[in-house]
Amino acid sequence: TDAVPIVCPCRVSSVLNRDVKHFGKKHMFDASEETCWNSDQGTCQWVTLDFPRSVKISQLHIQFQGGFSSRLCTLEGCRAGEELERISTLYPEDSNAMQISFAGLRAGFQVEETVLDKLKITFENSTDFFGRIVVYHLRVLGERL
User: Fold this and answer.
1) Which UniProt key words apply to this protein (predicted)?
2) Partners of 30 in the beta sheet?
3) Separation between Cα atoms, residue 96 and residue 82, nearest integer Å
4) How far is CA 52 from CA 8, 29, 55, 118, 133, in A?
């Protein structure tokens, strides 16, 4: 079973100047190098993905704009009807590079614990003085169950 990109509804903490047309969440998933989600200022911006069906997550791909990235990302997830639980902590580079992390390969977690109906990524420590986050690409790879 090959991992495939999981498409799902998503919510975000904020959008720069509420300008959804130019900086909205949809731009994280459009595979365009020209568009991005740009959060407004403030600490702890976040993205929540609501999967229509349970998903076994294998990889998380994220591409920030350097200078507007997060030094610390907390991943929380849950099954339907449950409370979010911390799954993993990522320490992304402050760069424009596509960054890939492998969910479920963290010590102490069984593979079945990466089966989720909801995933929340919290950007806890922005490299931007005002706390803004800019994400060009966000992709979750996995297997629909």
Assistant:
1) Nucleus
2) none
3) 35
4) 7, 16, 9, 9, 26
**Residue 55 domain boundaries:** 10-144
Q: What is the CATH number of the domain that holds 114?
A: 2.60.120.260
User: Rounded to whole angstroms, how far apart are CA atoms 18 and 6?
Assistant: 26
CB 51 within 8 A of CB 76: no
Asked if residue 3 belongs to a domain, the reply is no
Q: Judge whether 1 lies within some domain.
A: no
Contacts of 104 (CB under 8 A, 6+ apart): 57, 58, 111, 113, 114
Residue 104 lies in a domain: yes
- Give dist(CA 67, CA 96) in Å, integer: 9
> What are the 10-residue block averages of pLDDT along the chain, 145 residues in total?
78 97 96 95 94 89 95 93 91 92 53 78 95 95 87
| Residue 121 within any structural domain of the chain | yes
Nearest to 47 by CA among 17, 21, 27: 27
The encoded tokens of residue 70 equal 């997060």
Nearest to residue 100, comparing CAs of 59, 137, 67, 133?
59
Q: How far apart are alpha carbons 110 and 44 in whole angstroms?
A: 28
pLDDT at residue 145 in the model: 86
